[in-house]
Amino acid sequence: MELDSCIKGRRSVRCFADKPVSKEQIEAILEAGTWAPTAMSREPWRFIIIEDKKLISYVSEETKVAVQQMMPPLAERYKTKDDIICYNAPVLVLICAEKDPQWTTMNLVDSALAAQNMFLKAYELGLGTCYMGFVSLLSSKPEILKKIGVPENCDLMVPFILGHPETKQGAGKRKKTNMLKWIK
User: Which residues contact 39 (CB under 8 A, 6 or more apart)?
Assistant: First the structure.
């Protein structure tokens, strides 16, 4: 698959087939993440792969509680019993980075770059991904981080879900806006 096809065809997936992702696919996706550029070649990321459905459900439920506590305007929507966080995905990936106050912003950027590589590789393999930003709200809950395997010396940076899409992903459209300023 050509890079342009991956870039233009990849979309966030929230409906997954009840089918496991193979270890080989996960390893290929992880390797793609490790080829992302990092500030000063630090490679600060650590990857946690969660396939335990009960643990993924726990993350979803705890995230809904965190949204209700920390984002009152959204509280009502997140009182549902439906999994509107991890969408019953078979895999939850947590990209973490070693704690270092001087590098927090760059660690987030580096983790996001790794995630983008991983998203594109997953798409190339016929898999779907979706960034789950609200899961990051769990960063302020050390007892939950410990339960989901985040080391004490790491910050949770980029959580995302992964699985076989229930339906074929289609290329989306982009708004035509004046978003370019070219200075010569």
Answer: 103, 106, 109, 110
Q: Which of 155, 136, 156 is nearest to 67 (CA)?
A: 136
Q: Which residues of 65-90 are buried (b: 16+ CB within 10 A; e: fewer)?
A: bbbeeeeeeeeeebeeeebebbbbbb
pLDDT digits (tens, 9 = 90+) for 130-154: 999 999 999 999 999 999 999 999 9
Where are the extended beta strands (E) located within 60-181? 91-98, 128-131, 154-163
E strands present in 30-153: 45-50, 91-98, 128-131
**In this predicted model, what pLDDT tens digit does every residue of 113-135 receive, in sequence order?**
999 999 999 999 999 999 999 99
Evaluated on CA atoms 100, 103, 106, 110, the torsion sign reads: negative
C-alpha to C-alpha distance for 71 and 68, rounded to whole angstroms: 6
Question: What are the DSSP calls for 74-96, one per residue?
Answer: GTGGGG-SS--SSTT-SEEEEEE
Q: Rounded to an integer, what distance in angstroms lies between the CA atom of residue 20 and that of residue 10?
A: 20
| Residue numbers in the chain where pLDDT is lower than 70 | 170-171
Query: Given this model, what pLDDT does residue 171 score?
Result: 67
Superfamily of domain 14-163: NADH Oxidase (3.40.109.10)
Q: Whole-structure pTM over 0.85, yes or no?
A: yes
**What residue segments make up the domains of the chain, in order of their start?**
14-163
